[in-house]
């Protein structure tokens, strides 16, 4: 991984971003010590809101006021055992 001090990184920031876009990782140092890494951004696997029209979502359960309540011991056991 190539290393650049802060001054070099500021001066060549656009070029460093081009290198990162090509998949390279770049190390930024201050006084010879690593302080940051430029790495390609992670892509979101799904756009925000994906699945909002998914028919598998139980809208009735979400509309009720007790969806947030903790599970009972019996519900936990059924969940762990894989029972419906």
Largest β sheet strand count, sense and barrel closure: 3 strands, mixed
The CATH C-level name of the domain at 3-38 is Alpha Beta
Tell me how many strands there are: 3
Our count of helices gives: 4
Order of helices and strands: EHHEEHH
CATH superfamily of the domain at 3-38: YefM-like domain
CATH topology of the domain at 3-38: YefM-like fold
Strand composition percent: 15-25%
Q: What structural class should be given to the helix and strand makeup?
A: alpha+beta
Cα-based radius of gyration, to the nearest Å? 24 Å
- The portion of residues assigned to helices is 25-40%
Mean pLDDT: 87
Q: Can you tell me the residue ranges where pLDDT is under 50 for at least 5 consecutive residues?
A: none
Output the strand order for the largest sheet. 1-2-3
Architecture (CATH level 2) name of the domain at 3-38: 3-Layer(aba) Sandwich
Overall shape: elongated
Distance from N terminus to C terminus (CA atoms, Å) equals: 51 Å
